[in-house]
Amino acid sequence: MTQYASIGLKSHIWNNNITSMFLLTMFPALFIFMLWLGGFVFMAMETSEQYNEVNYAISMQTANMFVANYGLMVLGGVAIWFAIAYFFNQSMINSATGAEPLNKSDAPKIYNMLENLCISRGMKTPKLFIIETDALNAYASGINENSYSVTLTKGIIQKLNDEELEGVIAHELTHIINKDVRLLIVSIIFVGIISFAGQLLIRNMMYGRRRSKDSGKMIIVAFIVVAVGYIFALLVKFALSRKREYLADAGAVELTKNPTAMASALEKISGHAEIKESSGEVKQMFIENPPAFAFMQNGFFSIFATHPPIDKRIAILKGMA
Question: Kind and range of the H or E element at 218?
């Protein structure tokens, strides 16, 4: 890899880290905004028949009051939920993928690759797991040194040569080194909180409609707030995921000094990565997760994709050679 490519790689990593941290801070801000929006929309609907500048000001004051009175309570509840989900998330991932431990005696070459890469970075070697599927995919998981693991599919072990497989392992190790696993778990939990809270709120509103004539307005308010919050949370989650994939590709190159092998691995993975049995949350952690629809690969609708276009990733890697 040339000196120019190395400088470009470090700049690429730095830019992605800055962008990811900015996106992550949007989650707490989103909960406060949803609270503010609920107060504003509710008061705006109450005064909708004669809406003017005075009523607009009242709506603004109501929204600000909601944040002042309930903001800390909402963030506290979110923090408690988050802590519980955070520490139990790993067991949920293992259960969802059906991954099984891969013994060193069964795959000594893979273990040697993993251990050598870890030694080069002075890190503890994570556990190794395998999924019995012909699909070509991999992911990293865990929240600390005791739970970090790299999972490979049987297909990716069989179809990739040693240099390509080393690149894939380095990609997953980069996710661990950069704390991407934690970052993605955080984003998944936040979206889950909004989804669950929204469903619970709307169901309660629908049930209360039988007893209150004004509950129709509350249902509309709840639906607007939840819809806006959920869509924005999804967009942030997807943006984080895409940024971290670019960063992991760059990290794999930094570890192996072999961008060509990483590009070749992605070329083989392309079109063969689908693991239909896995949930959408788990697929977000894979090295490749093709979009459900072709129109989501490029253009505006690519903002709903969890991974950047694999052709673009391959082109960037080849440009580093």
Answer: helix 215-256
